[in-house]
Amino acid sequence: MTKLEQMQRVEACGVVAIIRANSSAELIEVAAAIKAGGVDLIEVTMTTPNALGVISDVAARYGDEVLVGVGSVLDAETARAAMLAGAEFVVSPVTKPDVIEICNRYSKIVMPGAFTPTEILAAWEAGADYVKVFPSSGVGPSYIKDVKAPLPHIPLIPTGGVGIDNAGEFIKAGSAALGVGSALVNNQVIADGRFDLLTQNAKKLVEAVQAAKTDS
User: Fold this and answer.
1) Suppose 85 and one of 52, 72, 149, 198 were both cysteines; which one would form an S-S bond, judging by CB atoms 3.0 to 4.6 Å apart?
2) What is the pTM of this model?
3) Is 119 tagged catalytic?
């Protein structure tokens, strides 16, 4: 897929699942479960044990069926290593120009983190494809709406505090997509092997996002 096609996929699904798994095998099971529920965008954080190996294994297993990215990236070297391992998008909790630059060089989607309007604009002007609004847990959907008013051209992906109950409100506020972690993929649920529950959570999230898009 081209980068444009991948971005269209991000916005069509509307949910980026943030996963911290203990192994490739575990993450592959998680990916299968949430994909069955309609979520085919997975962000493997660099805090995952053997993260690069996990990314490589999942990318090889699913190909274009699942768009695999890397999260918690803090420098260009890590971004490059993850892209070589198979990551199709790169997410950071902060804005680092060198990370944005190398992602653009290799035509990969880059989602740097920012919070204030000044930071969000700086990330966008540095070459971000999306700006991850992080942390969103303390501000909620109204903050996205307020930021989008003067900056309507910048696609935002709120992350932190996003779940089934407020996903629709974040979309109605103007979010391009949502970054969802424990509200979708809970470590205890994984440990208990309740992959059916992951499928249910994914389905509910996607339904909430799609309903909000229809109403917007």
Assistant:
1) 52
2) 0.96
3) no
